[in-house]
């Protein structure tokens, strides 16, 4: 079991973690959630003895990590999948870790089989993809067959099959009675993997509860009710009946009603008493992502703002060239950006590229200067189109300067 009591870490004037207390119990997957900069990585580093807390303490099985006898055989961790010497083969990397911890060499081949890297065991890790690096890091964490496991973003870079494999692996490890502590930003994956959640924000504890309790505590459950679309009077009749019974009714964009304050059986009874037919009566509970966003909305340090590039958009000068044809325009699958809104600058509009040596920049794209300007080559209604003038001839390209000759003597010496 992992236990933190009053854990605090300061870096100069910045407090990364403040008075953090929690327990990670065996037999369950505990998710560790929080916005960027909330102190998750710092907390994990303090658990593993990589950083010393300013105050407070964190123990594993009652001992600080540094005082655990043969700690690699009791605790496995994946904090940085890139923390591998690129010139080392996968098997050599694991074998060196095994020899340092007194782990038999046969265990290296076992974990390579567990993570599916048998066929690339003799390849250097510098050629591994991000997902392969994650698998190698997981293999290193499993090397000592530990009872406590910590994973920081273990599914980063994995394909769907790999994500499913990690999910099943975490559950299987917890089912064996191990302590599994997983940090991730993928809320949908945490909802399928974790049994318990520890949520922090700006270094402080926000929640320590089961996934089900967390969603219930941070979401507003409601019922969706739909009446026949061809009889709008029935919707008004039902809305009045639900309001009189103490419910709160809000219309939704698709014509349904969102009802809170009344259980589903009561809504059904009221509809029956009002002689209103229902096309839909379904409960709605927020997802883990919705509940997480609701709880942490005040603990986010970095927020996006609409980029109003005011003053950067200038009209095309008179006599500018018409827009050049875009390959594929008008064909099936072609995406045209929405028309500019009236009365204001466009959010996310790209600034106009500088004019080239043979004319002004192409116009007509959203946010580009001259967007919406009349095409001087468009044919009047009822007349054949006017042919656009030919594109200017391309200037002869200048030959690139020759690269200096390689010093073969230095290359041989380097070898």
Give a brief outline of the structure.
By secondary structure, the chain is α/β, with parallel strands linked by helices.
Features:
11 helices, alpha/beta, 415 residues, elongated, four-stranded antiparallel β-sheet, six-stranded mixed β-sheet, disordered C terminus
Helices and strands in order:
Elements: E1 2-11, E2 14-24, E3 28-33, H1 40-47, E4 55-60, E5 75-78, H2 90-101, H3 106-115, H4 130-142, E6 148-152, H5 160-175, E7 179-183, H6 187-193, E8 196-201, E9 204-210, H7 211-217, E10 222-226, H8 232-244, E11 248-251, E12 257-260, H9 264-273, E13 280-284, H10 288-296, H11 408-414
Parallel strand pairs: 3-7, 3-8, 5-6, 6-7
Antiparallel strand pairs: 1-2, 1-4, 8-9, 10-12, 10-13, 11-12
Helix pairs in contact: 2-3, 3-4, 7-10
Q: What this model shows, in words?
A:
With 415 residues, the chain is an alpha/beta fold. Helix content is 27%, strand content 19%. The strands form 3 sheets. It has a 6-stranded mixed beta sheet, with helices on both faces. Strands 11-12-10-13 form a 4-stranded antiparallel beta sheet, covered by helices on one side. Strands 2-1-4 form a 3-stranded antiparallel beta sheet, covered by helices on one side. Helix 2 (90-101) packs across helix 3 and helix 7 crosses helix 10. The chain is elongated and about 75 Å long. The chain starts with a strand and ends with a helix.
